[in-house]
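hey so u asked for the seq, here:
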Amino acid sequence: MKREFNVIIERDVDGFYIATVPELKGCHTQAKTQDVLMKRIQEAIELCLEIEGAEYSHTEFVGVQRVVIAS
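ran it, structure tokens below
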């Protein structure tokens, strides 16, 4: 069965890329390059789905919005 997942990619202050899959609780990984990151997140998704009782809720990607809070 083919499944599609949304992946959020961010970059931290040290230059590492971080990938998170909102539909799968706790499914995330990091890497120095985006190519390696995508391979690792695919492996992470497969591992999360292998966990007995792993449930996910498919969500539709709408967009990303940055919010600035003045302090």
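The longest helix spans residues 34-50. Strands lie at 8-11, 17-20, 28-31.
lmk if thats what u needed
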